[in-house]
Design brief:
With 315 residues, the chain is α/β, with parallel strands linked by helices. The chain has one domain: NADP-dependent oxidoreductase domain (TIM Barrel, Alpha-Beta Barrel). 35% of the residues lie in helices and 14% in strands. It contains 11 helices and 10 strands. α2 links the parallel β4 and β5. The two termini are 30 Å apart.
Length: 315
């Protein structure tokens, strides 16, 4: 496993991170979650990403239980806030930052998180108030660094221009071979300001693993078959997308890589990407994903990927 610096922080994170969206505390059984988390550490993964909204606190609770006996300095722990936790609890106000942070720390069974992220931008709270709340969280010792997820360039820039507040070190956007929206503006802006990318859905909800084929029934044990985990996959399962992904088969085979390894190596080719978040419902999935760390793709391969995917790419 290779490691990269996360933005201007002193955090060294594994190129592959373990995520918990749609899985731990909800989509899969507790013992399966524990097996995946423990195996991640065996593979050298030191970066765990979660959020208070995942399974309504369930993911944080499972992680807190499983991580309880591990030395706290042996892993980098990230969580998030923004989405509603109750009818009255949502957003990025100073009060919500304080309240949701304390609740996350209780569930995670820790005194601090390495990275606290704004899960989305909050248009209903003044940005100054959000940044002041995050600054207080860092000053309290409960948070080491702060980041954001899916903020627009103008929102990022506005935060950077506020004086006397903590600065972001990370961005968590969707990014994959099929979804490249951050390339024109977000990545350059972040590069200029010491902000690293922690990308989610680098495998496009599993579609880039090649498990879903045109004219083939969905695998019984797949995310697409799960009521708890398939809600975001409709467009990815459209025939033109699956046909485009199938054209990556030969490219991966020629390199001696699995489809998943090719997709992960592709996002990690970008120097501003510190880590790619993967989800796992079985430990063996992590073996395949972790093997992508350190793989470097040549220019000819990158051109071949672009030609294969064609118009299926969202830019």
């Amino acid at each position: 496993m290779k490691y990269r610096q996360l933005g201007d922080s002193d955090l060294r994170v594994s190129e592959i991170a373990l995520g918990s969206w749609l899985t731990y505390g909800g989509g899969i059984a507790r013992n399966a979650a524990e097996a995946c988390i423990n195996h991640a550490f065996e593979l050298g993964i030191n970066f765990i990403d979660t959020a208070n909204i995942y399974s309504r606190g369930g993911a944080e609770t499972v992680l807190g239980e499983v991580l309880a006996d591990r030395p706290r300095d042996s892993y980098v722990l990230a969580t998030k806030l923004y989405f509603p936790m109750s009818e009255t609890d949502r957003g990025l106000s100073r009060r919500q930052i304080e309240k949701q942070l304390d609740a996350s720390l209780r569930r995670l069974r820790t005194d601090y998180v390495d990275l606290y992220q704004c899960h989305r931008y909050d248009p209903e709270t003044p940005l100054d108030e959000t940044m002041e709340g995050l600054t207080r969280a860092v000053e309290s010792g409960k948070v080491r660094y702060v980041g954001f997820s899916e903020w627009a360039p103008e929102q990022i820039q506005a935060a950077l221009e506020i004086p006397g507040v903590v600065r972001f070190v990370s961005s968590q956007p969707q990014y994959s071979m099929l979804w490249r929206v951050i390339e024109p503006e977000v990545i350059p802006l972040c590069e200029e300001n010491g902000i690293g990318q922690i990308v989610w859905s680098p495998l496009a909800q599993g579609v880039l693993t090649g498990k879903y084929r045109p004219d083939t029934p969905l695998p019984e044990d797949s995310r697409a078959r799960s009521d708890a985990m398939s809600g975001f996959m409709d467009k990815l399962l459209e025939r033109p997308v699956l046909e485009a992904v199938a054209r990556l088969d030969d490219i991966a085979a020629d390199l001696g890589l699995s489809m998943a390894q090719l997709a992960l190596a592709w996002v990690l080719r970008q120097p501003n990407v510190a880590s790619a978040i993967v989800g796992a419902t079985r430990p063996d999935q992590l073996d395949d994903n972790a093997a992508a760390s350190g793989v470097r793709l040549g220019d000819e391969t990158l051109l071949a990927v672009d030609a294969a995917l064609g118009d299926a790419v969202v830019r």
